[in-house]
Amino acid sequence: MRAWLLISTVAAVGCAGPVVFQGQSTLPVSGTPPPAVVAARPPPRVEVRDNKIEIHDKIQFDYDKATIRPESFSLMNEIASVIHKNSQIKKIRIEGNASAEGSAQHNQKLSEDRARSVMKYLTEHGIAAGELVSIGYGVDRPIADNGSEAGREQNRRVEFVILEQDVTHKKIEVDAQTGTEKVVDENHEVVRATDATPPATAAKKKGG
Amino acid sequence: MTALSRWLAAGLVASVAACAGTARRPEAYRDDTGKLLETRTAQLQGCYSDALKTDARLSGTVTVQFVVAPKTGAITQPSVDQSKSSAPPVLGDCVVKAIDGLTLAPPDDHEGRATFVYEFKPNPEPAS
After folding, report:
1. How far apart are CA A101 and CA A155, in angstroms?
2. How far is A66 from A45, CA to CA, in rounded Å?
3. Mean pLDDT throughout A176-197?
4. For A147, which of A104, A117, A128, A188 is 20 to 30 Å away at the CA?
5. pLDDT greater than 60 at residue B16
6. CB atoms < 10 A from the CB of A56, how many?
């Protein structure tokens, strides 16, 4: 009996012993990170387009007054910044427009005051006074129906028209072999807006 | 031949009979198990790429231990040795899930107690 026990023990020891081992080297695992999402930049609120400084927002004023509301200060600062960066711009006309709500005379004055208020803000923020003129068109230039509040809201606005700007014309030769560009001729000219009517004249016209 | 010698010889014969299957040397056991693990590389890469969606910087090493069952070759008791791992637990989970259910063929007569280290590294982002 003891003999069979010994036989089974030898058999068990010979076969059941665990084998302990370690991987010889690390097992590499690569992964592909998702492509970096580039946050879409919001469109600029203020941009220079041909002979206009377009504002994709609205300068807010106190009701029936020419006081710029504080929530529009950042927009105003952005306008000043764009004018600064575009040194080719020599003269801008700030145009105030009103809705048909109220008397035409009152709206005329309100639009003039608001345009003047915007000009004042810009001159206080680094724009040379000589670069700016202001005018109020009252209710004369509606862009929407004054019969609805939505339309009247659109009509209450301030616009910026570039009256004068430097334009540089360059003639460039491109080397066919190297692709290098070379300026062979360059000239500057001051381009004036076709409707660059002096504000005084426009105001007189309005009054008349 | 003495009586003891006869008993030892009988034991040896019994042992050979009991281990009639495959009995790998440790190196072969290690290499065969390593090859078995490599069959799940694609699955691991998928799990890793999914994890990278939540954190693109995930990387590090995972040390996994498991037992290869004798006679069946089934990988059992997989566990991550956190003290020897630098990767976050989510990658350890990837490894445990990936190797679970693997079976070494042919199975070995001996139980295997294995330790392997995975290294997770993200592919460089393509130049834009």
Report:
1. 10
2. 22
3. 79
4. A117
5. no
6. 11
| Centroid of chain to Cα A201 | 33
Q: Model pTM?
A: 0.49
**Quick one: CA dihedral A158, A164, A165, A171, positive or negative?**
positive
What was the ipTM of the complex prediction?
0.80
Look up residue A103 and give its two tokens: 């008397």
Q: What's the pLDDT tens digit per position in B48-58?
A: 999 999 998 89
Containing H/E element for A170?
A: strand A157-174
Alpha-carbon distance B34 to B102, whole Å?
A: 12
Name the residue of chain B whose CA is nearest to A6's CA: B11
Token pair for A114: 């608001």
Nearest to A36 among B26, B38, B125 (CB): B125
The predicted model gives A27-50 an average pLDDT of 86
CA distance A4 to chain B (A): 8
**A48 φ/ψ angles, rounded to the nearest 5 degrees:** -90, 125
Pick the closest to residue A95 from A75, A72, A111 (CA basis): A111
Which two structure tokens, joined as six digits, stand for B76? Answer: 């059992």
pLDDT of B35 strictly over 90:
yes
